[in-house]
Amino acid sequence: MFTMEKLFYTALVCGFVICSALPNGKRSFSDLVEMEAGSEEMNSYSSLINGESLHNEHGDTKLSRVARWTEQNNIECCNRDKQKLSNKDGEIMAQCLIETKSKNSSQEYSLKQIVCLVDCAVKKSDLVDGDGNLDAEKVIPYVKAREGYGQLFANKDDLIKRCVDFANSFSKERGEVNFEDQKCNIASAVIGDCIKYMVEISCPDDRKVAGEQCDNVRKRISELVDVLNI
C-alpha cells in the first residue's frame, strides 16, 4: 500500500524526469511501485519498461534480462550531486494528488493512477507540447537545471532529446493509460529510466565509480540502449 509520502516521491522524483534522491535506495519508477512480484500488474509493467511490448522479437532474452539486472542490483556508478525538491514541485504535486484522486475513497493507489499523477505533474510543469507529448525544447533545459544533472548533461543535449523521442514513441506505441474517466500519457514515467541510463553510460571520467561491478553496469546498460534503439 502506498503512503502519501511514498506516492509523492514516486511521482515527483521519477515522473519529473529527475530520478535522483530516491528513498530507500530505490532507483527507478518501477522499483518504487511496490507491486507483488509475479502479479499480472507487475508482469505487465515490467514488460512495458523492458521494451517487450515494442520489441516482441526479443521475447524474454537479452532485452528483459539486461533491464531486470540493472533494476535489481541498485547500483549507482556515476557520482552526482543530490537532488533537492523545490516548493514549486511540492505545490504542483499537491494539486495533482487532488486532480487524480480516485472516486472510490477506499481504493489503494494503482499503477494507472500513479501514471496519471506523473502525467499531471509534468503538464503543470509545462514540459509538454500542444498534443500532450514531451517537448524536447522544454525538457532539455529543465533536466539541465536540476541539481545533480546539469554538470552531467552540460554539452549533451542530444542525449536528453533521444530520451524524449524514445519516451514519446514508446507512449504512442503503447497508447494512453485509462484511469476511471482520465486518459493519461505514460511517456513521463518512461523517460525517467532513460535519463537514468544515459547518466550511467555518459558519466564524465572524473565522476565514474571504478571497479568491475560498475564496468558491468555500464556495459549492460549500453546493451539495453542499443536494443531499445534509443
Mind explaining what this structure looks like?
- The protein has 230 residues and is an all-alpha fold.
- A hairpin with a 2-residue loop joins strand 1 (177-179) and strand 2.
- It has one domain (4-228).
- The protein is globular and about 50 Å long.
- The longest helix has 18 residues, at 157-174.
- It contains 10 helices and 2 strands.
Question: What is the structure about, briefly put?
Answer:
This protein has helices at residues 4-15, 29-32, 40-50, 62-72, 87-99, 111-124, 136-145, 157-174, 187-201, 212-228; strands at residues 177-179, 182-184. The chain is mainly alpha-helical. Helix 1 packs across helix 6.
Question: What order do the helices and strands come in, and which of them pair?
Answer:
Blueprint: H1 4-15, H2 29-32, H3 40-50, H4 62-72, H5 87-99, H6 111-124, H7 136-145, H8 157-174, E1 177-179, E2 182-184, H9 187-201, H10 212-228
Antiparallel strand pairs: 1-2
Helix pairs in contact: 1-6, 3-4, 4-10, 5-6, 7-8, 8-9, 9-10
Percent helix: 40-55%
- Major sheet: size, sense and barrel closure? 2 strands, antiparallel
Number of strands: 2
What's the alpha carbon Rg, rounded to whole Å? 17 Å
**Number of separate domains:** 1
Order of helices and strands: HHHHHHHHEEHH
Strand content: under 5%
Straight-line N-to-C gap: 33 Å
Number of helices: 10
Lateral strand order in the biggest sheet: 1-2
